[in-house]
Amino acid sequence: MQRVNAIAGLTLGQLASQYNFKTPDDLLREKGWTGQLIEYVLGATAGSKPLPDFEDLGIELKTLPISYKGKPLETTFVSVTPLINVTGMTWHTSAVRKKLNHVLWLPILSERDIAPFDRTIGSGFLWQPTPEQDALLQRDWEEQMELIALGRVDEISGHLGDAIQIRPKAANSKVVTDAIGPNGQIIKTLPRGFYLKTSFTGEILKQQFQL
């Protein structure tokens, strides 16, 4: 948290030059750069493993782009959605719950009129779901995983869920993966991911900053 507090108020450009971190010419094509920079500066260790970013602390890092009014500007990716071999999976052992058990949220002022390198890092904070939030997440997860298990993956849309939604996660429509089809057969479909809705992350920010 000392490291987190030390970078609050800096722009991404200032932070990158302070740490001699390689910067792309065009951040629009390098969407993951901000997260990579913050992970590097704060010492995250997990990389792309399905573990919390700070393995020894059991803490997941999430950067959160926010507006001038302090509202989240986009949904937050949590983990890849399993689409086969889902029988017997439970919320308590799921990758989503492991990732959201303890989160370091780092708000970044990211309005579209601010150039990427001029975006300002806000006050990071640690968060754990309240029992009510955990129950809400569990309900959304179970409802949508049940549809996957029943071979109804194509019925899932971003409208489902109060806290978590499932939606396609692929660079383009040519990327496909295996999933359970309507009659139990294996079909090809777009990879999916779990995302936290902005209404849910907005509530987390409200709780923290009494907005």
Helix and strand layout, with pairings?
Elements: H1 2-7, H2 12-18, H3 33-42, E1 60-66, E2 76-80, H4 95-100, E3 103-109, E4 120-121, E5 125-127, H5 131-149, E6 164-168, E7 177-180, E8 186-189, E9 192-196, H6 198-209
Parallel strand pairs: 1-3
Antiparallel strand pairs: 2-9, 3-4, 3-5, 6-9, 7-8
Summarize the structure.
The protein is of the alpha+beta class.
Describe this structure in words.
The chain is α+β, with helices and mostly antiparallel strands and 211 residues long. 28% of the residues lie in helices and 20% in strands. The chain contains 6 helices and 9 strands; from the N terminus they run αααββαβββαββββα. The strands form 3 sheets. Strands 1, 3, 4 and 5 form a 4-stranded mixed sheet that branches. It has a 3-stranded antiparallel sheet with strand order 2-9-6. Strands 7-8 form a two-stranded antiparallel sheet. Belongs to the MutH family.
List the defining traits of the structure above.
211 residues, 28% helix, globular
Under CATH, the homologous superfamily reads DNA mismatch repair MutH/Restriction endonuclease, type II
* Strand composition percent: 15-25%
Number of strands: 9
Structural category is alpha+beta
Using the coordinates shown, work out and report the CATH topology: ECO RV Endonuclease, Chain A
Top CATH class: Alpha Beta
What CATH architecture would you give? 3-Layer(aba) Sandwich
Which stretches are poorly predicted, pLDDT < 50 over at least 5 residues?
Answer: none
Main β sheet profile: 4 strands, mixed
* Straight-line distance between termini: 22 Å
What global shape is seen?
Answer: globular
Helical segment count: 6
Give the radius of gyration. Answer: 18 Å
Give the total of domains: 1
* Residues in helix, %: 25-40%
Mean pLDDT: 91
Protein name: DNA mismatch repair protein MutH
Subcellular location: Cytoplasm
GO cellular component, one term: cytoplasm
Organism: Pseudoalteromonas espejiana
